[in-house]
Amino acid sequence: MLDRRNTLLLSVPLVLVLVVSGFAFVVELDDTFMETRGADDVWLIKFYAPWCTFCKQLDPVWHQIGSELRSLGSLINVGKSDTTKSTGLAKDFRVMNYPAILMLKKDVKYNYPGPRTKEGIMDFANRVAGPLVRSLSSVQLFQHAMQRHNVMIVYVGATSPLKGNFSSVANELIVHTFFFSASRDVLPKTVSLPSLPAVVVFKDGTYFTFNEELDGDLKSWINRERFPNYFKIDSYTLYSMGESGKLVLVVLVEEKGQCEESLRFKGLVEKVAADYREIYSRHFHFGFMEGSDYINGYVMGQVTLPFIIALNLSNDGYFLPLGAMETERHLLDFLNGILDGTIQGQGGNCAYQRMSRLIYDIRVTLTLVFIQAPLLGCLLVSIPLTMVAMFCYLCCKHRPTQSDDDDSVAMFAPSLPRRKQTNKKSD
């Protein structure tokens, strides 16, 4: 019993030391940061506001990241900055929302676009902090990379203008994916390249080679090809897909306990994405999302799961099937109808749609507030209504009356004779 008690007493200080040490690995930054930092320092920074709920939720994760990077011997420094105090630093990094996660490496700022999870942020930090283009110098390294990454973008060949272009693209898109370089003898023997140098994307158990005449700009091609052919999509990934210029065909399914119909929809879309890749890959991404909250806001309504929708992320538009989606033929007709214009797009980002979406978001938010905190909901509604009522009251109070108008006329024209009222008797 005594030994157990001693063990507990010893474990409490140990936990405190770990917590304190985690906080010690995160530096609070102020407006002097850009002047005092080292030129070669690499910084991972969280910009927050004290009133931001999401910032508070991220705080323990952020300290775990700081502690883990330090324990691994990483050269990445982890910091955070209160934007309400260090307004100059927030302006330098063009912080627009909270929490914002950015990385500073040799005066280049990289914005983290992914989910606010420890794994996602750590992957981003290690990817950006390392070389822009990682060399795969052996068959073993290449195979190891293939096992770790669903999508690999590889430059093959010696130094050339194409390699310079490849490095420039990597500098911009390193926030999204890894970039590699390799010699021809490192690649699997089954890979056939028409010429060298070449840029190759390995994904979905196969590979695709960049052709400037057919594919156009290298950056645009990589932006289109850096996603798997069919995969699980979240709201962050969906947002970044907008840069590819493709439409996104999404199957919405339940988050847990997916029904037989949901599994059938997922299998149907996955099969079409694989079997008809040569036809539709230039125009569509394919995937599935769990839950419907994001799409409910997109279409401004409640959708019933499972649900199939095609999104045009460039203009906030969408396409809906005209009928039931029972067979492969139905899905192909849906895709072809979108491409040939027989299925009309809905939604969009015109002024009317933006206003409608804003009203919908406010209505949904207030509904949730009323359900979870009725008193707060009443307060939020009563404040604007009270202000409108006061404005109307003041306007009515200061509105000139008929007697005021007569007095004004008499004041500014006193010499005008008043009309005498006479009573005329009828004969």
From TrEMBL:
Annotated localization: Endoplasmic reticulum membrane
Domain Thioredoxin, residue spans: 6-130
Comp. bias regions, Basic residues: 417-427
Enzyme class name: isomerase
The keyword Membrane appears for this protein: yes
GO molecular function, one term: protein disulfide isomerase activity
Protein keywords: Disulfide bond, Endoplasmic reticulum, Glycoprotein, Isomerase, Membrane, Redox-active center, Signal, Transmembrane, Transmembrane helix
Keyword Acetylation: no
Any single GO CC term annotated in Swiss-Prot or TrEMBL for this entry: endoplasmic reticulum membrane
Record region (Disordered): 402-427
Topology of the protein relative to the lipid bilayer: Single-pass membrane protein
EC number: 5.3.4.1
Function: Probable disulfide isomerase, which participates in the folding of proteins containing disulfide bonds. May act as a dithiol oxidase. Acts as a regulator of endoplasmic reticulum-mitochondria contact sites via its ability to regulate redox signals.
Protein name: protein disulfide-isomerase
